[in-house]
Write a structure and sequence with these properties.
Elements lengths: L63 E4 L12 E4 L4 H15 L2 E5 L7 E5 L12 E6 L2 E6 L2 H18 L5 E5 L5 E7 L7 H13 L4 E7 L22 H13 L3 E8 L4 H6 L4 E3 L5 E6 L4 H17 L4 E5 L11 H4 L1 H11 L5 H18 L3 E5 L16 E4 L10 H6 L4 E3 L6 E3 L11 H7 L4 E3 L2 E2 L8 E9 L8 H7 L1 H12 L8 H11 L2
Parallel strand pairs: 2-3, 2-4, 4-6, 8-9, 8-20, 9-10, 10-13, 13-14, 14-15, 15-16, 16-20, 17-20
Antiparallel strand pairs: 1-7, 5-6, 5-7, 11-12, 18-19
């Protein structure tokens, strides 16, 4: 039986959901793990007396469940987690974690006995289902989780954990599950608003239970620079994360199979850097400073930004680095060449007499992409940093994070796709949680995401043609702190629970969900404890 296809429903959002360590609507702490194991009956000798099982109640829903007759797996006082011989080095951490969450023993590499859970890496004929995929078999009072890689096994343990929380048992049968998209995540603007390390760690745990695998940290903007720096300590805000705190966050993320993506946005959104280096602020021909914009005609501008990119590329071990490139204020005026003649002159000197300010901005994007690529990173940038019909073309190896069609030079998503670019969906119509709701933003609801959005809906509510599906790498829910005092970090955590769970469902499986919205919301609240 395939799970994940049919009806839709209606109603609004509720409290935060999905993982341990969060709060309900009244701010009370939620339990960190399923209840303690209790004695349960052994599997019946005659399984035919049981009805066919149903798929486990989990978020995101499993893609495929083959039902079977039997009582399913539930914990007993003798249950333990074991690892298949030869897999202990790779899966020991995953095994210890799920054992602790289920409150049962961990016995290391051993044969699985009655009531046990075994973790294993796929081999031989079992290979080939794709990265992050897993198979979970619940049969004869045992559970076996087999994954294509460590992440796949980990996601199988998330399914087991949630099934036990929601129904007390892991239903009899076989689950075959995999993500539809390789990039699934959350982005947090920690530049405009300081978030504690503990809050970020709680979000990582929440994300892991939802099988999300990327956390973006936008840590530099006009309002603040929030991670300690050795190369330029003068730019760092009073409230910031220490590098030890960041390393602790990174260690937890790695254990949960989450990649943390740093972002230093430039050439705009650099106000915190420019307060320490005012001579680099962009000024018009009339001498008017432009907020957050660095003067990209000055070599010193590139030197400082590149120092920071290299420093944090070394701190963050993950594959990606986000270089921003959005909302450069020089390009928001009617005639950038007349308003900023120093930029126009630099563009023509570097790219020829027909070059314009947008070409200089594109060259800046390409240069910053080269810096992070030399540091071993895959560069990402916002879609409004790529312009059409220029003397310079934006690096086609940079992943485009598409958030808006409202900014300067707005382009439809299909333009990027026709150029062969890889795109990540951060559609501001559905996935932008902007504090204080400025500029006509409204807080997104889980209901709208669940019923209307999928990774092909890149701009507004229109989906791009399916022929471009393979170029859309995934999606990310984004918290922006424009009016930073509008909510506390705890209020934010509660408010994003259902939207984040709905996003997780649709990036894991974009098909119309089997559960309607009311059923999904009830399950999410149940999983929250």
């Amino acid at each position: 039986m395939l799970t994940g296809c049919s009806g839709q429903g209606a109603d609004g959002d509720g409290a935060a959901v999905g993982a341990a360590g969060r709060a309900d609507d009244d701010g009370k702490a939620l339990p960190a793990a399923p209840d303690s194991p209790a004695a349960s009956p052994s599997p019946a000798a005659d399984s035919s007396s049981y009805p066919l099982s149903s798929a486990p109640d989990v978020i995101p829903a499993v893609r495929e469940h083959e039902p079977a007759r039997g009582p399913g797996w539930s914990r007993t006082a003798d249950s333990a987690v074991v690892v298949a011989p030869g897999s202990e080095a790779a899966l020991g951490d995953e095994a210890r974690l799920i054992a602790g969450e289920l409150k049962i023993a961990y016995r290391g590499a051993a044969a699985a006995g009655p009531g046990d859970v075994q973790l294993a890496l796929a081999s031989g004929a079992d290979k080939g289902a794709g990265p992050e995929s897993y198979t979970l078999v619940s049969r004869d009072g045992k559970v076996t989780v087999t994954g294509q890689d460590e992440a796949g096994v980990f996601y199988g343990t998330r399914t087991l954990k949630q099934a036990v929380r929601s129904g007390g048992v892991m239903p009899e049968g076989t689950v075959r599950d995999r993500p539809d998209r390789p990039q699934r995540g959350l982005m947090v603007d920690i530049a405009r608003k300081h978030f504690t390390a503990g809050w970020i760690e709680d979000r990582l745990r929440e994300m892991a239970d939802l099988k999300l695998n990327q956390l973006g940290l936008h840590f530099s903007d006009d309002q603040g620079f929030r991670i300690a720096s050795d190369s330029h300590p003068e730019v760092v805000s009073a409230q910031h994360l220490t590098k030890d705190e960041v390393r602790r966050i990174l260690a937890l993320a790695e254990s949960l199979h989450i990649t943390v993506i740093p972002e230093i946005d430039s050439p705009g959104h650099l106000g915190a850097v420019l307060r320490a280096h005012p001579s680099l602020q962009l000024r018009s021909a009339a001498g008017t400073p432009r907020q957050g914009a660095i003067d990209i005609s000055k070599p010193e501008s590139a030197r400082i930004v590149d120092d920071l990119l290299r420093e944090y590329a070394e701190l963050f071990p993950g594959r990606y680095f986000h270089i921003g490139a959005d909302e450069y204020q020089a390009l928001t005026v009617g005639n950038p060449q007349a308003s900023y003649p120093q930029l126009a002159q630099a563009a023509q000197q570097r790219y020829g007499s027909g070059a314009k300010v947008k070409d200089l901005a594109t060259g800046w994007l390409n240069d910053r992409a080269a810096v992070v690529r030399e540091a071993g990173k895959q560069p990402k940038a916002w879609n409004d940093g790529f312009f059409r019909n220029g003397a310079v073309t934006g690096d086609k190896g940079v992943e485009v994070e598409y958030w808006t069609g409202k900014e300067y030079g707005a382009r439809q998503p299909v333009e990027y796709l026709r150029e062969g670019r890889k795109v990540v969906n951060v559609n501001d119509e559905y996935l932008y949680y902007v504090l204080g709701e400025p500029n006509d933003f409204t807080y997104p609801t889980g209901k709208r995401i669940y019923e209307e959005w999928n990774p092909l809906v890149l701009r507004g509510s229109e989906a791009v043609p399916k022929e471009y599906s393979d170029q859309i790498l995934g999606g990310r829910f984004a918290i922006w702190c424009d009016l930073s005092n509008s909510q506390t970090q705890d209020q934010i955590a509660r408010a994003i629970g259902l939207p984040l769970a709905a996003t997780a469902q649709k990036v894991w499986d974009p098909r119309t969900p089997e559960r309607d919205w009311n059923e999904f919301r009830a399950l999410a609240q149940k999983l929250a404890g």
